[in-house]
Every structure is written in C-alpha cells, then in structure tokens.
Amino acid sequence: MPDKPHDNDILRYRTPRGLKRAGLIALCAAGAVAAIGIALRYQGEKRTENWTEDQFIPSVQVVKPKGAQAGGDLTLPGDVQAFTNAPIYAQVSGTVRKWYFDIGARVKKGALLAQLDDRNYQAALDQAKGQLARDSATLANAKVDLGRYQALAAQNAISAQQLAAQTTTVAADTGIVDTDRAAVQNAAVNLGYTRITAPFDGIVTSRAVDVGTLVTIGTASPTPLFTITDQTRLRIYVHVPQVYSAALTPGLTARFTVPEYPGRQFTATLAAAAQAMSAANGTQLAQFVIDNAGGTIKPGDYAEVHLQLAAGKGSVRLPATTLLFRDSGMMVATVDSSDHVRLKPIHIGTDMGNAVEVDNGVAPADRVIDNPPDSIRDGDKVRVGTAPD
Questions:
Q1: Which of 119, 120, 292, 338 to pair with 48, CA 20 to 30 A apart?
Q2: Do the beta carbons of residue 307 and residue 262 sit within 8 Å?
C-alpha cells in the first residue's frame, strides 16, 4: 500500500512548469529592445554628425579663366576743353557804353563785342596830333635855317660853331617830332582798345559787363569781360597710368562717351603725349583731338574715355571678384581634383576694372573660386558649384 503524502509536502511551494523559460524569453526581448534602441540612437547621432559635417563644408562657385585673345578695354576719365579759348580783358580803363553779344552768340573774327567810352582817348589822340603838327613845323623851319647856314658857311660868312649849333637844333627837333609821332600812334592804339572785338570765329561762353560798368586795368585777378571759344575742334586730356603708357602710340583712336548722350559713342585721335610721368600721381598726360564741327560736344564736359589695349601673350582673364588680397601679395583660390582649396599667387598684367588679365600664376584649366571668403585657407574642403556666366 503506497505511502500517503506528508502534510509538509502538501504545503511546500512548487515553481510552475515553463516559468523560467518565459522569464528568459522576456529578458532576451528586453535586451533586444535595448540593443535596437541603442543602435537607432547611434545611427541618429551618426546622421546628425554627418549632416553637421556636411553643413560645415562651405559651398563655392568656380569660374574658368578665359584666354585674353582680344585686347582689354581701359576706361579713364577725360577732361574736354576747347581747342582755342580766349578770355578777353580790357587793355584800357573806361566805362562800358554798349555791349553787343550775349552768351551763346556765334561771332566772327573782328566782331565788336563791346564799346568803352572813347571821348578821353579821342581827345588824347587829337592832342598828340596837334603836338606833332606844331613840332613838325618847328623842324621844317630849323631845316630851312640849316640850309641857309650851310650856304653861308661855304662862303665863310659864318663860323663853324654857328653851323654846328644849327645842325644840333635840327637833330633835336627831329627827335621831338619822332616822339610826337610815337605819341600819336600810342593814342591811336589806346583809342582802338576802347573797341572790344572777337579775336577769332567762335562762341561767346561768358559775359561779365553791362552798360555803365567801370572797367579798370591793372587790378589783381581781373574777371574777363568776355570769353570766346572755338568749338569746331576740342581736346580731351586724359591722365594715363604708367603701366598703360606704352599703349599711347601715334594715331591711337579712342572711344568716349559723355553723360548728356547716354548710349552714344564718339571717337578722338591721339594728338600728343607729355612723354613724362607726373611725380604727383604716376600718370602721363595724353591729349586727344575731337572733330566737333557740329558742336555736339561742349567744352568742360566730363568724358569716359575707352582705350583698347593689346592682350598680353599667355595671359588669362579673370573677374575682379576672384582676387584675394593677402600680406604676401595678390592671390586667387583654386580647387584641386579632390575639392580642396589651393591658394596661388598671381601677377596682374592689366587691370580693366571689373576684370583683370593675369600673366602668371593661373592656367586656363584651373578652377578659380569666385567671391572667396576672407576666411578661406589653403587645404580647406569645399563643395563646388559653377558660377553663372
């Protein structure tokens, strides 16, 4: 007969079957969840790190150097002046009795511009003529006496001393007459100066007199009564920098524009160059001549003069926005095949304002960064784009 279970065995706790297995499965599941979470977080951090690194790499635009086959256009300021310009001053003092031409009037050579009061000068001329007539009569009488004295001296009727005295009298009277004649000429010239006339064909560009104005000569810095300019030919004075002075060859033709005719171009021809550099600004003064028969261009105009320069051999052209100014000199930033920055020193052959011709330091195949930041350094990693033309 089998033994009966003891009471203590009945009360003892027994682990249900499968519970350990369930706990082990739950533990594994929790570990898997934790591993997946850690992996996802790592991947997120990596993506963030990669994104941050991508954002840190600057994007740049690059341009290709262009061959400088055509000459560059150099633009310089020009000063337009009349080929012939005459400020007219009074040469005698007097009151203006009448003036005849105002500004803008076209006048011919010898035209009467103004008349000064000439009564005093007419009186001076009349007085000089009277003095000349009186002294001429005295000289004539002295010459008659001299002829008589000479006849008497031939007969030994008078002494040699008397003849010499009469000869001296004739010579003195001759001198007086010559002085009187010069006085008449001077008075006639002064009378003529009361007529203010045009020295050549031209245009009246200034008038500073009116009826009743007292004109006084000999004053410091006098104002011209009139200014006459011949505008059929004009000059343009241009200060050409030393580096471009070799382009000033005989017969050089320049194009220029003036503000009052936007979009319209005119031509001028080199007439002369100073053949010396100004110590003040390192430029050579060049004079261009304009045929202005139509009177289109005005003296005093500001002009923009365009000179065509020959291209340097082996030069390339770059936008001025690619230049970097460093302590070691002028540079450009290029990008190598691995998209890293390489700074290159350059030499500028011609500066054309918005572009430069580089004759050393850059090859046509280089990728040059446009508008490089000042912080860019050799070896920096960059992301490359192409600058629009």
A1: 338
A2: no
- Cα(83)–Cα(79) distance, rounded to whole angstroms? 12
Q: Residue 368: is its pLDDT beyond 60?
A: yes
CA distance linking residue 106 with residue 261, whole number of Å? 23
**Cα dihedral sign for 243, 254, 308, 306?**
positive
Q: Which residues of 350-362 are buried (b: 16+ CB within 10 A; e: fewer)?
A: bbbeebbbbbebb
Rounded distance between C-alpha atoms, residue 150 and residue 27, angstroms:
167
Q: Which two tokens stand for residue 199?
A: 């020295």
CA angle 24, 14, 12 (to 5 degrees): 150
Separation of alpha carbons 51 and 385, rounded Å: 19
Can you tell me the distance from the alpha carbon of 316 to that of 368, in angstroms, rounded to the nearest whole number?
Answer: 12
Residue written as token pair 């008078």: 158
Identify the pLDDT of residue 350. 73
**Model pLDDT, residue 289:** 94
Task: Give the DSSP letter string of 308-319.
Answer: E-PPPTT-EEEE
> What is the C-alpha separation between 311 and 383, in angstroms, rounded?
33
Across the strands, what pairs with 87? 227
* Token couple for 334: 């290029």
DSSP line for 41-77: HHHHHHHHHHHHHHHHSPEEEEE--EE--SPPEEEEE
Q: Record the tokens describing residue 153, joined without a space.
A: 């001296």
Instruction: Return the pLDDT at 53.
Output: 53
CB 316 within 8 A of CB 362: yes
Angstrom distance (rounded) from CA 186 to CA 180: 10
pLDDT at 50: 52
